[in-house]
Each structure stands twice: as structure tokens, then as C-alpha cells.
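Entry 14. Structure prediction run on the chain below.
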Amino acid sequence: MNKIFCFLLVIISLSSCQNKDIKSYDLVIYNAKIVDVENESVSENQAIFISEGEIVEVRKNIEKEQVVADRLLDAEGKFVMPGLWDNHVHFRGGDTLIQENKDLLPLFLAYGITTVRDAGGDITPSVLEWKDQIAKGKLNGPTIFSSGPKLDGDQPAWPGSIKVSDFSDIVAALDSLEKLEVDYVKMYDGNLSAENYYGIIEAAEKRGLKTTGHMPMSADFMKAVSLGLDGAEHMYYPLKACSPAADSLTKLNLGYGMIEPLIDTYDPELADEVFGKMSEENVFVTPTLYIGKTLAEILEVDHQQDSLLNYIGPGIQKTYQGRIEGAKRAKASGSMMRDKMEEISLRMIEPMQNAGVKILAGSDCGAFNSYVYPGESLHGELNALAGAGLTNAQALRSSIVNGPGFLDLGDKYGSVEEGKVADLLLLEENPLESLQNLKRITAVVKSGKVFKREGLRNML
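Output returned:
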């Protein structure tokens, strides 16, 4: 009789378990301290539940025995934050450098960068192929958002650009970019006219396409903002709007020769008005401070012993010579433009931030941009922004919050919470306390796939 009773109990218990709604997950990270960059806070003893590359639940810790998951990861009290975004990178150099560009992808992950915004080049088909392969989990690398080819004048500065000479070219160019399904429009100023620059912004605005890039120095930055410009890459163009001498200098047709006079006539009060308008119109700025300093010092610093130079292919290394020769010519002519531009850019950051302008952290790494290494250079940019007056939290937001914000993807990125993409960093120490802690990576989670420290090293 006792044996029958026990047997019935087992059946009832199994039946009860089967009736429970037991969830299964791909990955569960527990014993984590979640870093909230927006609110500058840390939540302890948290568990993060991930399925199909997305965070499906975040709550107080659980016992691992209570969880059904393909993989359990004990964070051991370490800090978890969203993966970093590098909002200005380049994949370029022509067909012969396609493989060398592709080989750089693991470098981003090794430095905790899970997303990049490609700012245009001449190997778009390959970049879009990598983007698709990464999204499908067939290639290890950061998520790529791309502008595709740049839009320039009829004598473009870079190979692979789309030539724009009149309105019909604008229509055809935007048709081409939409067919490629690019994520935004990047303009360049090889010889793009002011009128066509304005025309691209207006036409893109009607199609719901984001616009950013370089501005012809013959154009008016504030007019572009009023037409719907969404971003500016580098500080030259906001700088121009902050000088009362801008109109008279434009009439002299000096091109970038007007930069030093613009710096000399920079007006902080006018700048406050400009930054206020930029904030009101939700214009993003990518300062690229780190590359500015690197190029300003390129003749004084010996980069041949850089440890990361070993990861750069010989073809890309050859492209570095162009910047070196340019620096030699500038030195011979007595130009101090790069040094002065570096100084004024640093001065502009804090008032921009205080006015509410959204700053984007971007490294400008890639072929032709000498010794600006993928991964490391974004860390350099974040530290440069902090050195210019941003708090650690503000610097982090310029990467992980403002990056997706530019692309209207804030509902999918920027925090560790339900519904967000599972791109995460596990860090030994709190990045809010020191940006140097971003280098102390225990693991990178890319779309739910875990790369531990040793695995990241092996990828390199």
C-alpha cells in the first residue's frame, strides 16, 4: 500500500511540473552588477535572460538551479553594460584591401565595440555582405550600420563616391542608396557645391533619410540645420557658424584656408546661440578629437613600436604615408591649423554638451587615417571627450546612447533591459568611476553569443 501511495505521489509531482509554464533561455547571466549609464547608477545582484539575441527579462538574482538555459554565465559580481558603439569608422582602400579590412573586424570586439557606423568608402558591396553575415551569426564582428558610398561633386575626393552635379543626380543618388538599403546618407566636400549640399539634405528629408557628413566650406551651416541636417562629422562646420567673420571669409573662396581665421574670430556668445539652435533641431556632432591629436602629432611620435600596428595589414599600412607627407608639407609651409583646430575643438565640447547638443563618439579609424587603430581609438576618443569636460557618464552616453539615438534605435540599444539587443560588456570594475575600466573586459556578449577574454585574444 505504501509503495502504491509513493508511486501516485511521483505521478502527481511530475504532472504538476508539466503544467507549470517553464521558460527556457539561450543564455542567462547572473550575479551581475548592471550599469545604468543614463541614470549613472548600478543595480546589484541582477540576472539577465537572453533568447535569440535579445534581452527578454532582467530581474533580481535567481538560483541557477531554477533556470532552464542553454548556457549559464556567472558574472561573479562584475559590471555589465551595453556594448560600445564607434560612430565613425571607414572600410576602404579598393578591392585589393578588402581582406585586410575584413581582418580588422575582431579588433572591434576585442575592445568591447559591438556596433560601428561605417562612414563611407569604396568597398560597399563587401561591407554590406559582412553586415549581413554578422547579423546572421556567420561572421564575428560588430553590427555594421553603413552610409554606403559618399555623395560628392563631379570631382570626388574619394574613390567609390557618387557624383552629384545637379538635382537629377541627387534623385538618382538617393534612389541608388535606397536600393542598397543604407542606414543614412553621408555627404563629402571634394567639390560638392553648396547648392547641391542643400539639395541633398532637402531631398533626403522628404524620403525620411538621415543626413550627415562634411559640408562644403562655401555653405552656411545654420542654413543646412534649418533644412533638416541631422549631423556633422568633425568640428569644422559648427566652428564656421561660431565666427562673425564667416560670411566675409566665404566670399574670399578660401576653402579650408579659412579655418585659422575662423578659429581666431571664434565668438563664445555666438557659439552659445549656435549650439542652442543645434540642440533645438536635434543635430548630432561627431568631434573625432582623438584622430585630430594623432595627426597633429604624427611627425613627433614614433608609431613603429605600436603593438596594434601588428594587426594592420601591409596594404593599409602603406596608406598611412599620405597623412605623413601631408603633415610634412604643412610643417614646411608654417601652417598651425591642426594644432589650433585641436585646441578650439576641445574648447567647444563642454558648451556644446551644456547646450544639449548630442555628441557622438567616433574614432575615424580605417585605411588612410594613420595610426588610428580600430578598437583602441574609440577608447582614446572617449578619454579625449572626458578630458574636454564631459563626465564619464556623458562620455559613455556619446557612444552607447547617442549612437543608436542618431539612427532612431533607442528602443533597441543603449541600456540593459527587456527588449534590447543583447550586446553587452562584462567588466572587472565600474566604468562610471573610470573610463580606464573599459579596458578590463572579462567577456563580450554579441547578440547573445559569449566571447570570453581568452576567446577574444584568440580571435586576434
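Residues 337-355 form the longest helix (19 residues).
Filed with the rest of this week's runs.
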